[in-house]
Amino acid sequence: MTQTSENVTWLTQEAYNKLKDELEYLTGPARTEIAAKIAAAREEGDLRENGGYHAAKEEQGKQELRVRQLTQLLENAKVGEAPAADGAVAPGMVVTIAFDGDEDDTLTFLLASREYASADIETYSPQSPLGAGVTGHKVGDDAEYELPNGKRASVRILKAEPYTG
Question: CB 3.0-4.6 Å disulfide test: which of 21, 56, 62, 63 passes with 37?
Fold first, then answer.
């Protein structure tokens, strides 16, 4: 099966290792822990009215969803170096843009997949309209992207620096 560049997630070695460690924990010790919680809750009796059992089963479902997400992500991941600090917008960069060239109307965001999302900074996917529109441009360039209503928006790239988060 061939992969398109849209299915590939570029990761630094550090990020890849972190996600791989999380997957190993979820498929090993975490599965054992949740199985023990479910077994203990089962011993309490009637499962229809057993809040602890239902909570543990819900936690198990969320955990298995994360396992599937991580498995797919790591299967499609390409490990490489962090982007160069050359002012060119690429995944893994913190980008500051000005809408319509107005430097009072700016947005700073991380251009990355949602696995990097953090409370510290807004994250846009490289495949999103804004992400695709600015990727490859350099600081000082104007870029355009398509809005959901079909109109075009213009932004100026003010800063592009590697994410150190």
Answer: 56
